[in-house]
From TrEMBL:
Protein name: Nuclear pore complex protein Nup85
Source domain of life: Eukaryota
Coiled coil regions in record: 138-168
InterPro entries per UniProt: Nucleoporin_Nup85
Biological process according to GO: mRNA export from nucleus; positive regulation of DNA-templated transcription; protein import into nucleus
Record family assignment: Belongs to the nucleoporin Nup85 family.
Length: 268
């Protein structure tokens, strides 16, 4: 049974084992499981051999996970996610999402996140696991924030040039992009998958919007944000939670904007 022990002999080995009625299936599974998977092409060839063979269903899952782990070790996160999703290794997807966020935090850069989930833009149907869906939406939110910052810088240039027409146009764009950012922020803090490590950043971003342009939040968004705050309040000791000045200020700011929204329009 040592015919499949040598790397690269898998095709010859499995053809040979196919003629062994008693131990052939076991030997084939063993040979395929031991085979190195340095490239996507080779992985596809092994999967093609397994396709349609019920006795190799678990071997297929093993192959996709093995290839995913190879990619993950090289920090090719997009490929790792692709193979994990293809093999329905959803627990591994969740774990990798956590690792990607941790690397972003350690490197103080969103590059790992962008490289990992950019391919999801053309394949949104793959974002089945809720944690991955949250990560994709978080990246969208960060891209919208980049657009906002770019518009703000452009508006500062327009003010220096005293170009009123351009300034009005950019103010309109700024309002639109701010509303889009608020929508995504609402989705992020409404999701049960919001990572604990990003709670502080989400609250800071919400506070920034309420301070700079509170009207970008609709009433539903405000109540969702308040519900999120109350959820965090219950997760901590109440006194400890509100010892943070920013949390207390955020709650007060939300309450103020909520009250304004109940006033007749002419009185605001």
């Amino acid at each position: 049974m040592e015919i499949g022990a040598s790397s690269g002999m898998w095709q010859f080995a499995v053809r040979y084992y196919e003629y062994c009625p008693k131990f052939g299936a076991i030997a084939i599974r063993s040979a395929l499981a031991r085979e190195p998977l340095p490239t996507d092409y080779k992985t596809e060839r092994l999967l093609a051999y397994c396709h349609g063979k019920k006795i190799l269903a678990q071997t297929q899952k093993h192959i996709t996970l093995q290839r995913a782990q190879e990619c993950k070790a090289k920090k090719v996160y997009a490929s790792a996610l692709h193979w994990m999703l293809r093999g329905s290794h959803l627990d591994d997807v969740d774990a990798l999402c956590d690792e990607i966020l941790l690397e972003c935090n350690d490197t103080n850069s969103l590059t790992p996140l962008h490289e990992a989930v950019q391919f999801m833009e053309s394949h949104p149907e793959l974002a089945r696991p809720q944690k991955l869906a949250w990560l994709v939406k978080y990246r969208e939110f960060q891209l919208v924030l980049d657009d906002l910052e770019s518009l703000r810088q452009q508006m500062q240039k327009d003010e220096l040039l005293n170009n009123k027409e351009k300034r009005v146009a950019h103010e309109s764009k700024l309002r639109f992009v701010s509303v889009e950012a608020a929508k995504r922020l609402d989705w992020l803090f409404s999701s049960t998958e919001a990572p604990k490590a990003l709670r502080s950043e989400i609250l800071q971003q919400a506070e920034r919007f309420l301070k700079e342009s509170p009207t970008v939040f609709g009433s539903r968004h405000l109540y969702s944000l308040m519900a999120y705050l109350q959820q965090l309040d219950r997760a901590f000791d109440r006194q400890e939670f509100y010892e943070s000045g920013s949390n207390k200020q955020l709650k007060e700011r939300i309450e103020t904007v909520k009250q304004l929204r109940w006033l007749p329009i002419g009185l605001i």
